[in-house]
Amino acid sequence: xxxxxxxxxxxxxxxxxxxxxxxxxxxxxxxxxxxxxxxxxxxxxxxxxxxxxxxxxxxxxxxxxxxxxxxxxxxxxxxxxxxxxxxxxxxxxxxxxxxxxxxxxxxxxxxxxxxxxxxxxxxxxxxxxxxxxxxxxxxxxxxxxxxxxxxxxxxxxxxxxxxxxxxxxxxxxxxxxxxxxxxxxxxxxxxxxxxxxxxxxxxxxxxxxxxxxxxxxxxxxxxxxxxxxxxxxxxxxxxxxxxxxxxxxxxxxxxxxxxxxxxxxxxxxxxxxxxxxxxxxxxxxxxxxxxxxxxxxxxxxxxxxxxxxxxxxxxxxxxxxxxxxxxxxxxxxxxxxxxxxxxxxxxxxxxxxxxxx
Length: 357
Prior knowledge:
The protein is mainly α.
């Protein structure tokens, strides 16, 4: 028996502004969408699920993550139903439902998200101050100020938390998808081929994003993605070798520049407020792009203060940098960062399943 949730659409509306009730399924959004397939039902099928209260069907649809919110459907809708805004709000709703303990709902709460983020920042600041070592003022010595073992052990603990949280959330999403899918599993080979196909085309290159007309947004999105990849590699090199390596410095510089460029673009667009995808940004969306920007800026300032030997500014910047990175990572499985996991995961499952005969 299909379970119906009469309040589903109203609950989704809390995660974004849209008027999808105006939709009469004319098909303009499907026709204009560069990511629409030959079945002619995207994104209207998701809209119908919400209007009918079919929560399991909605949360179990891989199509939910096919949208990059280019806004063409919203601009073209003759009824101003805002299908793009609906898809955005539905993904936010899905993130809250997929997260273990529904933790993500806290970060999408207008009341609690700034409070929780402030508490997390305070916890990290207090922790850094409690474990700090001697404040050497004759030269910059970051590893004396915050001993290396605390950085490494704290980083490992945080990484384990993020990994387990992300894995559990993906398993919850998979449960919804398999429970509602009308597709059969294919061979192991198809799963493996699908994984590498998605990894190369959609994760590393984001081929579907290229179909959207706004290339500048694509470049900014890729800059943030590859910026974090390069910073992760640089951090890994330093962690393994135990000392700062020249190659890590170069990768860190490039990665930092990329994330500043990418986040700067999205901050500018949000301040400009002209494009559809920025009209209804939650606090956590604003916080996300600003944290990315601050991560890059504090990283550069930290290097600068180290080079010019300015100990007190360096130590202050180091603590701010640790707070920003901590906030980004600890919230990653529950906020906009989660798109980086759910989207390729959904596309992978979709590619590894085939329709029933």
